[in-house]
Amino acid sequence: MTTLSLKNAIKITVIALSLFSVFWINPLESTRANETGQDPQTPSKAVTNDQFAGSEACRDCHGEMFEKISKTPHIKVLSVVSRLSGSEGCESCHGPGREHVDGGGDITRIIRFKDEPAKELSQTCMQCHTGREEHNNFLRGEHGRNDVGCMDCHSVHSADLSRPKMLAKPEPQLCFGCHVERKGDFQMPFHHRVIEGAIKCSDCHNSHGGFERKQLRAFNSSDAACIKCHIDKQGPFVYEHAPLKVEGCTMCHIPHGANNPKLLKRDQVSQLCIECHSGVGTVGGLNTPSFHNLATAKYQNCTVCHVRIHGSNASSAFFR
Ligand code: HEC
Ligand code: HEC
Ligand code: HEC
Ligand code: HEC
Ligand code: HEC
Ligand code: HEC
Ligand code: HEC
Ligand code: HEC
Ligand code: HEC
Ligand code: HEC
To answer: Cβ(236) to ligand 10 under 6 A?
Structure first.
């Protein structure tokens, strides 16, 4: 095998691997790298070291900006240690600035991000912020696909420094800024107290996409988002109530807010149960026994007797 064909073989393998691990490798990045003829696995900078001026040079003219960023977690990007390991400080986002500096601040010689499409700007950030489950699927998430970029939610220079995670606005205002139609959900008579500040949208959703439907936070099952706080509903129970394990919490509950107590989907508990326990429902539960006289008030409130409706260790009929 000649060196050339070996190179090609490696290239083909790399492409095959990229396709194979399509969830883990950023498509735009590999396209970009391929266009410049670089190996997509080793994104090396197409610029030489002397095109960088170093953050100390930026500080000379943009001192205030330097001080500000030093008060954010991105101080790590400016630090000497991080520069030794390959970060270029200010220039890791703004690109090489030597010509900008030599030109006395020529703004045509520096990346300004003005009018830069969200997806491209996000690529700049993802140079460093991939490789964690949390961010890996960003571009394929609902936000990434719909041109919502990192800077729609974060601010790297002008953030209120006391705000966690450099958010452009605090939650939930940040989210309501675009999802105003969801606000009503949390004003229903029964609701998770998101507006009141007791819990956050991001307790249940991963704004960075994730791998679940509706960008929910979950790693193993559709219930992980709920189980985090309602740990007593997790089980395993000796006697499981099948729909919890199969369909998940949202089979019976409306997660944001509802007109019904306990965030239930139906205003009468019996209605909810007989959807599955009447023998005509689509989801096969056992028939409600005939001695249950549903015309009487006694039997309408099913959970008065079947109290452990999320599962029980003592009773197959969930009595205790
Ligand atoms: C010799 C002084 C000087 C140095 C050194 C310098 N700049 Fe500038 N920079 C300027 C001036 C002047 C402007 C244009 C004034 C303005 O619009 O704020 C500017 C503008 C910019 C802009 C665009 C601002 C905008 O309005 O969009 C960015 C980004 C920027 N500089 C980044 C850097 C970075 C990164 C470095 C270090 C590599 C650096 N500058 C070093 C003087 C300097
Ligand atoms: C983490 C990436 C990142 C780093 C690091 C970074 N910037 Fe920026 N910078 C941006 C982005 C994105 C924008 C445009 C959006 C904005 O204004 O926040 C910007 C905007 C600017 C602007 C123009 C906007 C303004 O408010 O005047 C200047 C000047 C600037 N940066 C200078 C610097 C300097 C100097 C440093 C180093 C001390 C630096 N930046 C480090 C990402 C970064
Ligand atoms: C729709 C809004 C939104 C977008 C878009 C967004 N973020 Fe976030 N990000 C958040 C929120 C809210 C938090 C804090 C809560 C959390 O961790 O989910 C956060 C947290 C973070 C954290 C801290 C994570 C941690 O584990 O402490 C990093 C880093 C981050 N975002 C980077 C990014 C990058 C990079 C992008 C673009 C690729 C981005 N974000 C896009 C809303 C957003
Ligand atoms: C050169 C690498 C690099 C780039 C590029 C970069 N970051 Fe970061 N970012 C870091 C490091 C390092 C930290 C600190 C992480 C830590 O402390 O664990 C950080 C932290 C953060 C945090 C978390 C703040 C917190 O409170 O935990 C957010 C949000 C964030 N970056 C957003 C962005 C955004 C938005 C961009 C693009 C405009 C960006 N980053 C570009 C290296 C980078
Ligand atoms: C800059 C505007 C913007 C901001 C800010 C924003 N979103 Fe979104 N979000 C969108 C767009 C656009 C979509 C995709 C279209 C849609 O479903 O509305 C979306 C989709 C979603 C989805 C998926 C909906 C589905 O049907 O799959 C969830 C969940 C979500 N956003 C939650 C959040 C949360 C939580 C926050 C705050 C941390 C937030 N968003 C902030 C614009 C935004
Ligand atoms: C208690 C957990 C929880 C909290 C808190 C939460 N969500 Fe959701 N959200 C969910 C679940 C679960 C779904 C999926 C519902 C379903 O199965 O259709 C969802 C769906 C959505 C959707 C898609 C709506 C649709 O019609 O399909 C959007 C957008 C959304 N949430 C935004 C938000 C925003 C914005 C906040 C904060 C203001 C928020 N969520 C807080 C659990 C939560
Ligand atoms: C971050 C923690 C947290 C997460 C995640 C969470 N909840 Fe809750 N939930 C609470 C708290 C706290 C309450 C107490 C009621 C309140 O806030 O007023 C509650 C109350 C409830 C209630 C009872 C309301 C009542 O009237 O007694 C139901 C039902 C519920 N949650 C279902 C869910 C479901 C389903 C999910 C997943 C989609 C979920 N929760 C995710 C914190 C959480
Ligand atoms: C088969 C329907 C069903 C499913 C699925 C279901 N629940 Fe419930 N849940 C109920 C009913 C009915 C009540 C009201 C019980 C009562 O009134 O005594 C309730 C009440 C609750 C309550 C408030 C009372 C309490 O016991 O703390 C919470 C919290 C709750 N459920 C969380 C969850 C979570 C989390 C999941 C998913 C793991 C889930 N539920 C799945 C039917 C269901
Ligand atoms: C989404 C469909 C669904 C809903 C809603 C539902 N169930 Fe079930 N339930 C099932 C399935 C499926 C089984 C398992 C049946 C089997 O083992 O064959 C089950 C099992 C049971 C059992 C145990 C029967 C036994 O002896 O093994 C009881 C009791 C029960 N459900 C009561 C209720 C009550 C009360 C409600 C309303 C709060 C309810 N269920 C809501 C689907 C549902
Ligand atoms: C007054 C108490 C009480 C109420 C209220 C009640 N049940 Fe029952 N339920 C029972 C008893 C007792 C059994 C028989 C348990 C056994 O066989 O071990 C039973 C059994 C069941 C079974 C299991 C049948 C089987 O073959 O194993 C289902 C399903 C069921 N009930 C559904 C419901 C539904 C739906 C409601 C509300 C419409 C309801 N129950 C209300 C007492 C009650």
So the answer is: no
